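agent> fetching stored inputs for the zinc ion docking request
agent> found them:
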Amino acid sequence: MENGIRNFEFQNPTKIVFGKDQIKRINDLIPQDAKVLILYGGGSVKKFGTFDRVVEALGNREWAEFGGIEANPTYETLIQAVDKIKAEGYDYLLAVGGGSVIDGVKFVAAGAVFDGDPVDMFGSGVGKGLPVTKALPFGTVLTLPATASEMNNNSVVTFVEKQAKISFASPHTYPQFSILEPEATYTLPKRQLANGVIDSFIHVMEAYLTYPIEAKVQDRWAEGLLQTLIEIGPDVVDEDNHDYATRANFMWTATNALNRFISPGVPQDWATHQLGHEMTLAFGIDHARTLSIVLPAMMKVRKQQKWDKLLQYAERVWDIRGDSNLTDEEKIDLAIKKTEDFFAGLGAPIRFADVDLDETDIPGLVEALVRHKKENISERGDFTTEDARAVYTAAL
Ligand code: NZQ
Ligand code: ZN
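agent> prediction call returned; pasting tokens
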């Protein structure tokens, strides 16, 4: 029986600059003589003025732009940015956007200086999975709180031709700085606000809903983030409610959900994310909307393995206490139901039918997991292909 926090090393080098009117701080954060490439997505940052504010902050620095990084960024698009950097020579990258742009820039920053074919930065049957030993420096301006990519070193990239959505991470792919202006969220539509709340919630759950090892700080920090999301979620998804305090709490909770503060030295799962990535790849469903479907089913199918933590989750997060006259299993089932109701209340799907999928879609999803070598995942490495099939089936 594992007991006590595991050995760990932890370092997060990203400087966070948080608050109102902080984009101007870019002028102090990027070297004066840097030649800067600004990377962004489908155009929201131009439409809402963020791009212009970034350009103003860059002052007299030489700069150019690379737009068109799509949601769920593709290797095929990003490699064009790598080629541009190799041809034109930039020494600082600036990501302006949500998780997709930031993830994309991590790949571009590493790919531009990678010795060999950048595809080999990835494993999972796509490349050789070679270590990333260097990257160009980069900063970010966050416009969508959800992934915490602004304060971690993960990058998730979609390979259109090879049909894979996979990630890499390196100590060299942390942003040097990230600008977090909560007011940037005021232009987000309800669906993206809900995505942000749900993705953050499930990042915490992947690090929390495993088995207890007496890691009291990590547990209570995770429970605090979950309770914050439950409390503010309904207000956050009201797109017309531009309450600064609500959006500031939302933005900082999302960052804390996956900047690794809650996960050093504890078991983690991430199976919900792996099953979700296959749904995004096959059907183009938003990342968070796959998670709100998979997580409740995961809790039901893995109830025995996660029993102790599910009970703790019921009691501490949802306040379903010992004096409630419920059996332990009834408490767990009620907590799962409350989780589903929370997601549905934000307008997110919780079943296959909610996104027009059915049982005929399951075999292809399971085959893709095998093809991408996503087997024996979970906190104990015991999550089999049959478990994956059972989870997808429980989500019908
Ligand atoms: O492309 P533009 O025009 O900018 O529009 C975007 C996009 O269509 C729009 N948007 C962003 N900020 C906006 C805005 N619209 C109005 N106002 C604003 N302020 O929102 C849409 C979605 O953006 P995207 O960046 O795709 O969303 P998100 O931040 O949810 O990122 C999703 C990606 O991150 C990966 C996911 O797999 C997915 O590819 N993840 C990255 C993680 C990490 N790096 O640690 C962890 C996550 O689990 C996740 O896997
Ligand atoms: Zn996620």
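agent> quick read of the result: The CA atoms of residues 148 and 272 lie 17 Å apart.
agent> awaiting further instructions
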